[in-house]
């Protein structure tokens, strides 16, 4: 095997580890080699125990173990804070808003502690903790089954609670988001709940820092809601945003200074 072949295979493992599933076609285009060359690479990497073959592609053997909310809270902290500050500024007095579980929506709850005449419903323990002493915010907990890793409630009780309420705005998080498949999460319970949350709100925002754009670490998906707004941070490049823009998704890029540039439809 040539040095170039080894470098390519090392890069394939790195790409599968950081970005999740990769198809033969994507890898062929990325490395400028034929699909048959990529298939030989994948076969060799599978034999070496470095990758697991999938239909049409490969994934890392580690398969992206789900990080706990505690682990994720410190990641891209400044980006999450900027996104949360921008999102909070969109909410008007007297509105009813719905917050997903997660670290970015938890940061949004932190921004809302001093709000007045506001109703906040949430599936997340972090948001509940942030708003526990916010006496001027009416707080509703959707309840359900607690996922300990994500510190959020899911399941039929949470879904049933949603049928009793409507909202002016819903703010959703994600483990990854792609223009093709939508919002990626570790479990179907999570993605099912996100779809229902989106249905109950007039405006829907998907809050993700730039590292999650194009990322597909798991196999459970929720389609991007119609007329949703994707809100990310200034590390997002045009190549990251272009696939969403091509599908008519409205994109807002929030800078560290809190100034947002709107891109897309």
Tell me the strand percentage band: 25-35%
Query: Low-confidence parts lasting 5 or more residues at pLDDT below 50?
Result: none
Total beta strands: 16
| Relative helix content | 25-40%
Q: What average pLDDT do the residues reach? A: 86
Alpha-carbon distance between the two ends: 48 Å
CATH topology of the largest domain: Rossmann fold
Q: Name the CATH architecture of the largest domain.
A: 3-Layer(aba) Sandwich
Rg calc: 20 Å
Count of alpha/pi helices = 10
Q: What global shape is seen?
A: elongated
Strand order of the largest sheet: 6-5-4-9-12-14-15-16
Query: What is the number of domains?
Result: 2
Structural class: alpha/beta
Order of helices and strands: HEHHEEHHEHEHEEEHEEEHEEEHEE
Query: What is the top-level CATH class of the largest domain?
Result: Alpha Beta
Report the sheet with the most strands, covering strand number, pairing sense and barrel closure: 8 strands, mixed
Please explain how this structure is put together.
With 265 residues, this protein is α/β, with parallel strands linked by helices. It has two domains: 3-60, Winged helix-like DNA-binding domain superfamily/Winged helix DNA-binding domain (Arc Repressor Mutant, subunit A), CATH 1.10.10.10; 69-264, Rossmann fold. Helices cover 38% and strands 26% of the residues. The protein has helices at 3-19, 24-31, 35-47, 69-73, 77-89, 103-111, 125-131, 156-162, 188-199, 238-246, and strands at 22-23, 51-54, 57-60, 96-99, 118-122, 137-141, 145-147, 152-154, 167-172, 176-178, 182-185, 201-207, 220-222, 229-233, 250-254, 260-264. Strands 6-5-4-9-12-14-15-16 form an eight-stranded mixed beta sheet, with helices on both faces. A three-stranded antiparallel beta sheet has the order 1-3-2. A hairpin with a 3-residue loop joins strand 10 and strand 11 (182-185). Helix 2 (24-31) crosses helix 3 (35-47), helix 5 (77-89) packs across helix 6 and helix 6 (103-111) packs parallel to helix 7. The radius of gyration is 20 Å and the shape is elongated. It starts with a helix and ends with a strand. The model has no long low-confidence stretch (mean pLDDT 86).
């Amino acid at each position: 095997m040539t040095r170039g072949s080894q470098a390519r295979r090392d890069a394939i493992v790195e790409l599968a580890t950081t970005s999740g599933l990769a198809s033969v076609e994507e890898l062929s285009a990325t490395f400028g080699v034929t699909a048959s060359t990529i298939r030989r690479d994948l076969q060799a990497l599978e034999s070496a125990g470095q990758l697991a073959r999938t239909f049409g592609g490969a994934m890392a053997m580690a398969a992206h173990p789900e990080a706990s909310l505690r682990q994720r809270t410190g990641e891209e902290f400044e980006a999450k804070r900027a996104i949360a500050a921008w999102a909070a500024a969109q909410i008007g007095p007297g509105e009813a808003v719905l917050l997903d579980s997660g670290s970015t929506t938890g940061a949004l709850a932190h921004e809302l502690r001093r709000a007045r005449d506001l109703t906040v419903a949430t599936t997340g323990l972090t948001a509940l903790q942030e708003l526990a002493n916010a006496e001027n915010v009416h707080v509703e907990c959707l309840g359900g089954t607690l996922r300990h890793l994500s510190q959020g409630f899911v399941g039929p009780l949470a879904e049933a609670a949603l049928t009793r309420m409507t909202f002016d705005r819903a703010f959703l998080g994600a483990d990854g988001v792609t223009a093709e498949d939508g919002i990626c999460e570790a479990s179907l319970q999570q993605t099912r709940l996100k779809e229902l949350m989106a249905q109950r709100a007039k405006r829907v925002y998907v809050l993700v820092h730039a590292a999650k754009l194009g990322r597909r670490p798991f196999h459970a998906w929720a389609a991007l809601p119609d007329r949703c707004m994707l809100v990310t941070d200034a590390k997002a490049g045009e190549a990251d945003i272009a696939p969403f823009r091509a599908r008519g998704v409205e994109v807002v890029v929030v800078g560290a200074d809190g100034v947002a540039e709107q891109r897309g439809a």
